Amino acid sequence: MEAIQELEGHTDRVWSVAWNPVASSSNRSVLASCGGDKTVRIWEGDCSDSSSSSSSSSWSCKAVIDSFKRTVRSCHWSPDGKLLATACFDGIGAVWEDVGGDYECVATLEGHENEMKSIAWSASGTLLATCGRDKSVWIWEMEAENDFQTVSVLNGHSQDVKTVLFHPTEDILVSSSYDNSIKVWAPDPNGDDWSCVQTLAEPNQGHSSTVWSVAFDADGKRMVSCSDDLLLVVWDTSTNPLESSWLSFIILLPLIFKFCLFRKHLCTLSGYHERTIYSVHWSRRSGLIASAAGDDAIRVFAEANDPSYTSRAVFSMVGKQQKAHSTDVNCVRWHPKDDDILASAGDDGLVKLWRILS
Amino acid sequence: MALQNANPVIHERKATRRQRPSIGDESAVEEIDALEHLRDIRDPEHPYSLEQLNVLAEEGIEVDDKQSSVLTLPRLRVRKIPGKLFVCGSWIILAVNKQLNDKERVVAAMENPYLAQTVRDCLAPLEEYE
């Protein structure tokens, strides 16, 4: 891996970064970052530019949203790239739109009792999910233009919920928590409410400490989770029960029961990380998994077997950048279009862009 | 939260050791530095320091560089944040360990001005050594 850009501007740790999925193309990319300085910064530049001098670099900070009252923990672009959702420690979620270069708040989501930790858009762009230290997961639906109403308040986790993430194609939500478990939520058959359809915890070969984040592969057939227990776990989340070998003998299972989504453990990656793994991301294009950890390193993993062999998975580490940041790395995100580009955020207040060398 | 140790047994505070041991014995230097930093921290629930409450004693200190933490008897883990040592006054040991190691929760808690002031009050006796 080589560092191609260092984006300076934040005056405190950077918690998250997010690439705009539509605006980012081969010669112009848009990246949002948020952090402990209570700001969100929007950066724009060319990923093929690896000039180290800031005066000739194509990258610059195009906008700063600084009306937050507390740390902005997470940000997520809508699938159409037009809206940016933010999660703040003041417990309020916000949706921002670029209006002639300035970002304006077009909606707020209030309801959490304390710090909101994560916010995520569904694949359709009509639902938002939020979660926080109050142990709840909320689902919001866009009723009219920029008007979000609560659909469900989901209680189930026994502790602080760190991350929420929707499946890339289905209306299925995954949450991960300080209670060491991952929960899967789906709408009830009558569509009025959501409920927990599965919990992945230590008995299912899950984690033994806080699960900080999860990520799906390109088609959502697999998911990877990362934890304070220093492990990455890969799960089979394919929805077709007939593809899950251990279910194929249950011939009584009605095929119309769409929510037979029994996720199972596929692989555990252990012995690689020395400190808490804060973030993991699965490239939609290259299939590589990147991780960010408290040991200041970014690691990249690749599958070592035929991915169509669904009952097992073998991954190996193919890259490691030690001292990627001078302190903890909090987030990693693959570029949506360019296979080799990775963005990272660290406690050192920097956003860094990396190119994976083959 | 009700006081968990309403009638503490108070121990004598040993004199501060000013002389450093010989070079080469690096782990001993770190242990003594850790004790010097920690012994005077006041428990927020009592007007006594951790050493006076016998939570800390030189014999029980171990510096674990790999994990960036200092272990003391009875296994009160202190999180070493660059430049500062942070101690929580609660005696619920295992739950406290996980809380202290969760930097997101620590950062969020320190944004609470009341809690931040409580921590500053606990650490105030250290200022004379800085």
TrEMBL record, chain A:
GO terms of biological process kind: iron-sulfur cluster assembly
SMART domains in the cross-refs: WD40 (SM00320)
Keyword annotations from UniProtKB, A to Z: Repeat, WD repeat
GO-annotated cellular components: cytosolic [4Fe-4S] assembly targeting complex
Gene3D superfamilies: YVTN repeat-like/Quinoprotein amine dehydrogenase (2.130.10.10)
Residues in WD repeats: 7-44, 109-150, 154-185, 204-245, 322-358
Domain of life of the source: Eukaryota
Family per record: Belongs to the WD repeat CIA1 family.
Identification of the protein by name: Probable cytosolic iron-sulfur protein assembly protein CIAO1 homolog
The organism of origin for this protein: Selaginella moellendorffii (Spikemoss)
